[in-house]
Amino acid sequence: MQITSQMVKDLRDKTAAGMMDCKKALAETNGDMEKAVDFLRQKGLAVAAKRAGKATSEGTIGVYVHAGGKLGVMVELGCETDFVAKTDAFVDFAKDVAMHIAAVNPVGINRDDIPAELIAREKEIYVNQALDSGKPAAIVEKMVSGKVDKFIAESCLMEQKFVKNPDLTIQDKLNEVIATMGENISIKRFSRFQVGAE
């Protein structure tokens, strides 16, 4: 199939990948736009895995303050070089992550950051709900296990659906940025401030 410049442009607009990467993805998938998107996402995962061990000692602080000044977030993003830290794409990603945190209020960055007491409290609530509804004890554990896993996924930043594109998780978006930048990038920490909240 003939790969046109318009097809390459459309894929680039959709994925923000490089022009040559888009052209190669379309060639590999015989011009199928959806398969080309998947091809680029898999490539992003491969780049992210290859770069994962690299130190991220440079970076930036992304800040988002919601209208009215009652809610604000600061997030630290790390990267390998000062050059990448100063790019518009990197700074914009930091702002997007800060905005996402303001909107969704994650408990931690990864599953390991979710306090065990919080998980235990949620599990207890789910067990009591299931028992009160008359479910047999054998089924309760399986039901509760699924609900607890869903709670953890919704509480940790990397597994949350990205507010600007619910088709992607924050981890997916991070992988895309790593593939585009060609450097390891990490979300190191965040703080969310809300007037009147403890």
Describe the structure in your own words.
The chain is built from eight helices and five strands; from the N terminus they run H-H-H-E-E-H-H-H-H-E-E-H-E. The longest helix is centred in the first third of the chain and has 19 residues, at 33-51. The termini are far apart. The protein is globular and about 60 Å long. The protein has helices spanning 5-15, 19-28, 33-51, 82-85, 88-104, 116-132, 137-155, 170-181, and strands spanning 58-65, 71-79, 161-162, 165-169, 185-194. With 198 residues, the chain is an alpha+beta fold. It is 55% helix and 17% strand. A three-stranded antiparallel sheet has the order 1-2-5. The protein has three domains: 5-51, Ubiquitin-associated (UBA) domain (Helicase, Ruva Protein, domain 3, Orthogonal Bundle); 58-109 and 156-194, Elongation factor Ts, dimerisation domain (Tetrahydropterin Synthase, Chain A), CATH 3.30.479; 115-155, GTP Cyclohydrolase I, Chain A, domain 1, CATH 1.10.286.20.
Provide a concise account of the structure shown.
This protein has 198 residues and is α+β, with helices and mostly antiparallel strands. The protein is built from 8 helices and 5 strands. Residues 81-84 are annotated as: Involved in Mg(2+) ion dislocation from EF-Tu.
Structural class: alpha+beta
The Cα radius of gyration reads 20 Å
> How many β-strands, per DSSP?
5
Our count of helices gives 8
Span between termini:
59 Å
Order of strands in the sheet with most strands: 1-2-5
Strand content bin: 15-25%
CATH topology of the largest domain: Tetrahydropterin Synthase, Chain A
Indicate the low-confidence ranges by residue numbers: none
Write down the CATH class of the largest domain: Alpha Beta
Shape call: globular
Helix content: 55-70%
SSE order, as H and E?
Answer: HHHEEHHHHEEHE
Keywords: Cytoplasm, Elongation factor, Protein biosynthesis
Organism: Desulfopila aestuarii DSM 18488
Domain Translation elongation factor EFTs/EF1B dimerisation: 12-196
Subcellular location: Cytoplasm
